[in-house]
Amino acid sequence: MEPTTLDLLLWARLHAAGLPVPADRSWLWRELELHLTRQRLLRAATADLEPGDPPSSPHGVRRPHGVGLR
Amino acid sequence: MEVQAAPGGMAAAARAIADGEITSADLTERSIAAITEHDRRIGAFVVVLESALAEARERDAERARGVLRGPLHGVPVAVKDLIDVAGAVTTAGSPKLATNLARSDATVVARLRAAGAVILGKTRTHEFAYGVLTPGTSNPWDERRIAGGSSGGSAAAVAAGFVPAALGTDTAGSVRIPAACCGVVGFKPTLGRVPTTGVWPLSWSCDTVGVLVRGADDAALAFAGMTGRPVRAVARTGTPRLGWLVGEEVEQVAPGVAAALAALRARLDGAGVRVDDVELPLAAARAAVSAMVLPEVAAAHERLLAETGERGYSPAMLAALRIGQSALAVEYLRGLRYRGRFAALVDGALAGRDALVLPTVPVPAPEQGRSVLRLGDRELGVQEALTALPGAFNCSGSPVVSLPVGLSDGLPVAASLVGRAGEDAELLELAMAVESVAPRIGRPPAGTPAGF
Q1: Active-site residue, B203 included
Q2: Residue B184 forms part of a structural domain
Q3: Is residue B189 part of a domain?
Q4: Smallest Cα distance from B192 to chain A, Å
Q5: Whole-prediction pTM value?
Q6: Range of the structural domain that residue B378 is part of
Q7: How many Cβ atoms are within 10 Å of B321's Cβ, its own excluded?
Q8: I need a labelling partner for A28 at 20 to 30 A (CA). Which of B32, B82, B354, B427 fits?
C-alpha cells in the first residue's frame, strides 16, 4: 500500500526526533491528525501577532504588548 | 450493615463537628462503611487509607481540648491518585507507578490537613490524567455511563455521597468534565493559585489543582483550605451581569444541554440578572492548550519512558508522548504566544461583566465504551468533544466553576461560570447566587445513604 501524506509526515517527525515508528500506528495517526488540525487553527489565530508579542511561561500568562511591526 | 445518613455537604459536616453534634470518627466510619458497601459498583476509590480513622480520632481529641485546626476540622476528604499523600502510593492511574510510594504530602494535601481535614483515601484517575474516561469508575447516575475524567473517581465519590469533597486536577477540563457528568460542583481556581508541588505533572503551563464538592459554598470552604487562607466574604453590590457565550463551538451541543442552558438563562432573566451575548475563539484557545500540553507531557515523561520503556503505557498515552516528543518548537511557541492573546480577549469579554457562562460539556455523560460522539454535523472523539469547551479556559488560566443546572433524560447537565483571573472568591460568591436560581437536580438514583 502506498504511504499517505500523514504516514510520511509521521515518519519525518518521528525520525527527526530519533524515535522508532511502531508497527501499529493507528493511535499515532489519530493524535497527529488532531495535532495538525489544531496547529492550522493556531497558525491562523497567531498570524497577526507582533514580533514583540511574547510567549507566556509556566509561571504566568503574558498579555501581548504589540512591540514591533506596525 | 446499615449506613446512617451524614450531614449533607462539607460546610454542614464541619459545622456539625465544631458544634459537637457528631464526631469526626463517626463521619469517617460512615464514609468507610458506605465505600465498603457501595464502591464495588462505582469504583471511585483506589484505596481507603488505614490512617484515616486514627486521624479522625486525633481531630476529635483536639476538639475535646478546644483546638480546631481550621475550617475543615474533622471533615473527611478524598484525594485524586495523581496527588501525593505521605505513606500512600501515587499510581497516577498507571501500572508503571505501582510502587511509587509518596514520602511526603503534596503542598495542597498538607494545607488541607493543616485546615483540619481527614485524608480518607485516593480516587481513581485516568492514566496520568490524560483522558476523560477514567476506566474502572462508573457514573453514579447511570452505571453504564462514564464518570468523566480525568478526575472521575473524585467526582463519582462526591456524587455517590462517600465524601463531601475530593481534590482533582484540571489541565484541559479534568475537574469540570467529571463534575458535569456526575452532577456535582467542580471548581478550577485561577492558574497558579494552588501549588502543584507533589502532583504528577501533565503540563506545567496548564495543570491546576481543583476540587469537587456538592455546592458552591463548599467550593469556597475547600478553596480556603487549599490556599491556607480564610474564606473571604465578598460584598456584592448591584445586579450581576453575565456574558452568555455564543458561537459555533457552544452551539454544537446536544438538544438536552441546549434546553437546560436556555432554561437557566430564562431563570436568570427572571431573577433580574442582566445577560448578554459574547463570543470568544474557543477552538483556537483549546488548540493552544494542546500545543502546550503535548510537548510538556512528553518532557515530563522523558525519564520514566527512558528508564522503563513503552510497556505499561496505553496506546493513547504513548501516542500523546510520541507526538509531543516530535512536536516542533515553533508549534509549542504558538501555543505559548496565543495564551496571552486569549487571556486578553477573556479580560475584554469580562469588562463590565461579572462572569461568562457556557455549557461545561456539550453532551451528558456518554456511554462507557463509546469512542466517538456526533455533534451537529461533526463526528469527534470523546476526549476531543468533552475537552472542547472547558479546555479553552486552561489557556487563559481563568477560574471556572461548573454547576449542575438540569437533567436531560435523567442525566446531569452543567453550566460553567468563568471569572476574572485572581478573583476566585468573587466567582464563587456569584456561583452561589446562580446556584440559588438554577433548578436542583437532586441525588443520583445510585447514591448511597452516607448522604454527604
Answers
A1: no
A2: yes
A3: yes
A4: 8
A5: 0.95
A6: 10-289+316-437
A7: 25
A8: B82
Closest approach of B294 to chain A, Cα-based (Å)? 9
Q: Which residues of A touch B (CB under 8 A)?
A: 13-14, 16-17, 19, 24, 26-28, 30-32, 34-35, 38-39, 41-46, 49, 53-64
Does residue B320 lie within any of the structural domains? yes
CATH number at residue B263: 3.90.1300.10
B390 within some domain: yes
Q: For residue A67, what pLDDT band results from cuts at 50, 70 and 90?
A: low
Q: Check if the beta carbon of residue B450 is closer than 8 Å to that of residue B6.
A: yes
SS3 at position B225: helix
- Per-residue CA distances from B432 to A7, B200, B273, B436 (Å): 51, 31, 14, 6
A62/B316 CB distance under 8 A: no
Which residue is catalytic, options B24, B31, B80, B151? B80
Q: Which of B24, B94, B150, B203 is catalytic?
A: B150
Q: Are B385 and B132 in contact (CB under 8 A)?
A: no
Mean pLDDT over all residues of chain B? 95
Q: What ipTM describes this predicted complex?
A: 0.91
Contact B335 A61 (CB under 8 A): no
> Which of the following is catalytic: B24, B31, B151, B174?
B174
Task: Judge residue B379's burial from the number of C-beta atoms within 10 Å of its C-beta, 0-12 exposed, 13-18 middle, 19 or more buried.
Answer: exposed
Q: Which residue does chain A place closest to B343, by CA atoms?
A: A63
For B412-428, the pLDDT digits (tens) are: 999 999 999 999 999 99
